[in-house]
């Protein structure tokens, strides 16, 4: 499960580098922009880039419970089969696909009218406008439902996470198994730290910005750089997930830190005979 999540994080990072997606708010408008100047500015290219970006972002969120489900199966000594895990993955896949695939029905193509509003929102009348999609939220319309879908995905994911944590606490088979070695217990603790951190972090960097989006859009606020900050934070999970694995696993941590350590001679551990020989010279 951790490998599958890492693959999704990698794809999300690659998509981010290609599109450089960002957000800007106008008067009851939200612009999702492909800031890469080399990326095509056509409607189809923007739709593919932004749709796949949102798909991968929320696929990573909807996949979070899978690690807890897999852990619960191991703890009760009845691991889920590959077919069962694949079925759970497909549910996560459909949740992400629903969010990314809704873009053609909720966003509006670029136009000269929206270009002028975007330049005013950026407070730069001479700004070079890249490709973008724009969503209007004047009432409870399709765009508002698209926003609501974010909270549905978050609610489903964290409901299952909390449920799996509760069930895991009730399962003591693995914890009290006398045959479990110290090494196995240490690995279990490391994995637990990793998946807990990787589950908690998106609440702040994805959930919180997504909560601000509809508030700012409905109120018509054009707060400078709030969109850039929000998208920056929403793009950090792949990096932080990797750092969590490195920091929580001692062998990985030593491998990464070792090149930066200064080499020095520790005389406190030098053999006594060596010290005597050195004094005679």
Defining traits:
single chain; 281 residues; mainly alpha; Rhopdopsin 7-helix transmembrane proteins; three-stranded antiparallel β-sheet; 12 helices; elongated; disordered C terminus
Question: Can you describe what's shown?
Answer:
There is one protein chain. Helix content is 67%, strand content 6%. The protein is mostly helical and 281 residues long. It contains 12 helices and 3 strands, in the order H-E-E-H-H-H-H-H-E-H-H-H-H-H-H. The model is unreliable at 265-281 (pLDDT under 50). A 3-stranded antiparallel β-sheet has the order 1-2-3, with helices on both faces. It has one domain: Rhopdopsin 7-helix transmembrane proteins (Up-down Bundle). It starts with a helix and ends with a helix. A hairpin with a 2-residue loop joins strand 1 and strand 2 (29-34). The radius of gyration is 25 Å and the shape is elongated. This is G_PROTEIN_RECEP_F1_2 domain-containing protein. It comes from Bursaphelenchus okinawaensis.
């Amino acid at each position: 499960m951790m490998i599958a999540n890492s693959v999704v994080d990698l794809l999300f990072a690659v998509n981010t580098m290609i599109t450089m997606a960002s957000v800007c708010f106008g008067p009851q408008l939200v612009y999702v922009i492909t800031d890469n100047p080399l990326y095509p500015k056509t409607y189809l290219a923007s739709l593919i880039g932004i749709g796949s970006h949102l798909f991968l972002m929320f696929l990573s969120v909807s996949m979070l419970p899978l690690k807890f489900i897999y852990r619960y199966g191991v703890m009760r000594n009845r691991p889920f089969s590959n077919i069962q895990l694949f079925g759970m993955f497909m549910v996560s896949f459909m949740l992400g696909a629903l969010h990314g695939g809704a873009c053609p029905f909720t966003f509006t193509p670029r136009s000269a009218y929206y270009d002028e509003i975007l330049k005013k929102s950026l407070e730069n009348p001479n700004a070079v406008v890249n490709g973008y999609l724009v969503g209007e939220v004047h009432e409870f319309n399709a765009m508002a439902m698209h926003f609501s879908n974010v909270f549905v995905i978050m609610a489903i994911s964290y409901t299952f996470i909390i449920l799996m944590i509760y069930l895991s606490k009730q399962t003591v088979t693995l914890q009290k198994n006398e045959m479990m070695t110290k090494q196995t217990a240490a690995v279990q603790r490391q994995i637990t730290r990793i998946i807990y951190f990787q589950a908690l972090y998106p609440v702040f960097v994805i959930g919180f910005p997504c909560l601000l989006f509809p508030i700012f859009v409905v109120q018509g606020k054009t707060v400078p750089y709030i969109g850039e900050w929000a998208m920056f934070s929403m793009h950090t999970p792949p990096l932080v997930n990797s750092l969590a694995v490195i920091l929580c696993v001692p062998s990985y941590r030593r491998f990464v830190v070792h090149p930066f350590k200064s080499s020095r001679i520790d005389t406190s551990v030098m053999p006594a005979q060596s010290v005597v020989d050195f004094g005679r010279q």
